[in-house]
Amino acid sequence: MLKKLLISLVFIVMNSTTAFAAEEILFIPHDDRPVSYQQPVEVVSQLGYKIISPPPELLTQPDELWAWLNENAPAANAAVISSDALLYGGLIPSRSHIISVDELNARVENFKSLRENNPYLQLYVFGSLMRTPMFGTPGDIEEPDYYGQYGGQIFQLTALMDKQETNELSRKEKTYLDELEKNIPDEILDDYFARRLKNFSATTKLLDFTHEGLIDYFVIGRDDNAPLCQTHRENRHLLAYMENLGVGKDKAQSHVGIDEYAMLLLTRAVNDLSGTLPLVSVQFNRGMGGKTIPEFSDEPIADSIRDEILIAGGYLISNPARADFVLFVNTAPDGETYDNHNSLPPQPLTKGEQRFFRRNAKKFSSLVEDAINKNLPVGVSDITFANGSDNFLMAQLRDKDLLFKLQAYGGWNTATNSSGFALGTGILAKKMSRKSIDQLLARRYLDDWAYQANVRTQIAEELSTRTDALQIYLHLGEHESEIVKRENKLMQEFVKENLPQIKHFTLSNPWHRMFECQIDF
Asked: Is 229:163 a contact under the CB 8 Å cutoff?
């Protein structure tokens, strides 16, 4: 009898474990770029969770997307959803929409109905303050058309307005502010600030819902930010609103970045569903290290990563020997972020710069190697260069045979994008097989190292002699077939030389531009 009882208990435990592994997480990204949509899903799927996402074409249709969400929410255990998709039709439409205040308020109210109809759903939401690029690029689809002509002036105007609210402007700055206000047409400034006000008001309403418990965790991103600009200005007011509301970082955060939040909040959902509190240690490279203020950011990277750990549902500790995951952050000793991979034409490094980066990479790779030899679970956030890996570091990791001894890697975009993706993946890697970890690493190396830092850069250099180089770079158009063929040829050559263990893949540009790629194995 006792034997039968024990067998029955084992059967129940086994089945309950299976049920847990099949828990459903709804996921609505802010667009269908691979790193926003497919890649976070790929990471979490390695753990056995069932990720339910809408068809990509619904992401730009807020009303249809709400219908899909309301239909699927009752069966889910948790939901990680983009407020930008549900309010505006995506991250990019949030910057140029013409939605009325009444329509926007009605969509915001849908979050209240979602909670009322699904009281036990773990609800994680991420949205954004509008970004403030330092300059405009004609033909860029990510901003209103007028930003191509007036973007640089708008940035300077808002930087002075931001400074004026906290420090006294010099006479020269006041004169420049007056000139900018006169030079930028009133209708453009009216459109720009009216849209930002609508978006800011929607964000504060979502913070109200978070305070009331309707949203379990809410993250507001500050993409393409700077120490003085309109985004930074709005964030100061937002932080004051959060403080008055009594919403702490245990419930909501305003944070540098945006594209990493899907990965971080999916990680948080898994940790909450499994009752896990991962311990994370962060180790920085020599020099400025954690004090580095990366490009596109307004705060030290150590502060950003500390808050990313909180978003992911982890806990920061100092001792790497006690950590479930150790994130090593590759920064330049001088605290700069270099943008060589994202210029047109690419800027070649001088011999002195090459020596500088080679020494830095050698030192950093030794730190990583030492930690791996101590059997620590190590990941790398590679942020010395924006929008691509540090080639000097990757060569060191390759030559030391460390590439596939890591738990996670990130070097694909801005500093917090890279650190956030590596952090979320590395925390979850503890529950993965080595085969799954290597599969995820292979994708990052192909995307961040092979494509972003090398193939894309080489093709940009080849295009740079053309008068229409920038237009092609931003929109491949009739040149897409030719360029994709060239990309795949260069990728195969790079992989043969540097990553021979990776076989059978193809590359495409799903957004018909060169900034991102899709890797299919």
From this structure: no
